[in-house]
Structures are given as C-alpha cells and as structure tokens.
Design goal:
It is built from six helices and no strands. It is mainly alpha-helical. The chain folds into two domains: about 120 residues, no CATH class; about 35 residues.
Length: about 150
C-alpha cells in the first residue's frame, strides 16, 4: 500500500475517532441507554463488570485519546488496536452509527496491517534512535582503536 494512502487512512481514522469521542463525551446518556438495553457486552471479560455509563465514558475517552494520538502519529498501531476493539464491540452490539463504526473498523484494520504511513512521530523517534545507536557504535569503534594503539605502542 502506498505511504500516502496509509497516511490518509490514519488521519481519517484519527479525525473520526476524535469527533466520535467528543460526541460520546458530551452526551454519554445516548450510548449508556443503548448499553443498558443491549446487555450482550456484559459477557465480555474485561468490561462485563462495568456499569453502562462507565463503559460509555471509557469508550468516549479512549476514542478521543486514540484520535489525538493517531492524528499526531504516535503509537499508531497501539491506538489503532484500541479503536479496533471499541469499534468491534459497537458493531457487534449493533449500536447507532453502524456505518461509522464499521468504517472505523476497516480503517483501524488498515492501520494495524500497513502502519500509519509517512510522517508519523513513531517514524521520527525511530530514526533518532537508530542514529543514536549508530553514533554510539562509531564512538565505541574509535575507543577500541585507541585502546589497541595504546596497547601496541
């Protein structure tokens, strides 16, 4: 997949999650009332013991945070996985906004598989780390050469 397409998918997913998270946070009673009516989510191990409003707020905060991180390109695959899990839960339950949740599921899958595309903070930090490791190798080689010269001389 071209880097630009992966970048576009990441940015669209981040924007969608940001908007959905803000919408759920500003009016949590909509999703909480849906979760109260549809209790199948209570069989899911990690969230089964929560109240509907607690799960709603966790989903809203998680979506918002994942959107911010994806737009910034930081921890892209981890945030895509978190958004994939939230979207999969809501698609499985048939929550309102099924089209957006299904689109979020597809976009999150593409980010998980192909990465966040170019210009991610993850990529920049990785390049900095690789440069630092390479410089350290050069310094170590210079120190070893100096030790050998001292030992011979």
């Amino acid at each position: 997949m071209p880097q630009r397409l992966a970048l576009l998918f990441r940015l669209v997913l981040g924007g969608m999650l940001l908007v959905q998270g803000l919408a759920d946070w500003s009016n949590p009673t909509l999703l909480a009332s849906f979760l109260r009516e549809h209790t199948a989510w209570q069989s899911v191990p990690l969230v089964g013991g929560l109240l509907p409003i607690e799960l709603t707020l966790i989903l809203a905060l998680g979506r918002f945070a994942a959107g911010v991180f994806l737009l910034g390109g930081f921890i892209t695959r981890g945030m895509a996985l978190a958004s994939w899990l939230g979207a999969a839960l809501l698609v499985w339950l048939g929550a309102d906004g099924l089209v957006f949740n299904a689109l979020g599921l597809l976009l999150a899958t593409s980010v998980l598989v192909f990465g966040g595309g170019g210009r991610t903070l993850d990529g920049v930090l990785g390049q900095m780390q690789r440069r630092s490791i390479e410089k350290e190798r050069l310094r170590e080689a210079e120190r070893e050469a100096a030790r050998q010269r001292r030992a011979e001389g």
